[in-house]
Amino acid sequence: MANELLLWSSLGGVLVALVAIMKFWMDMGATKRDAAAALEKADETASDLHKFRTDVAKDYVSMQALYASEQRLAEAIGDMKTDVRSAVSDLTNRIDQILSHFLRPPQQ
User: What is the pTM (predicted TM-score) of this model?
Assistant: First the structure.
């Protein structure tokens, strides 16, 4: 009887071990499917992040370039204003000299 009990206990232990191994492999398959889905989602997210970074960098660079362009334009307009004032002042001085030359009383 003791041998029979030992045999059935051993068979029960083997059966429990087989069920545990089957459960492990079934869980491993589900884990692999979940991991594959997670990796696919991570790839999509990485692709979206790369596109977002590219768009942000492109827009940021464009905004920076636009700001720099506006600054250069403002400086150029300021320089033109200074040049025009200088030219008008010089022209005014020359006209004054011409007028003073013609409006001088004749010398005797």
Answer: 0.41
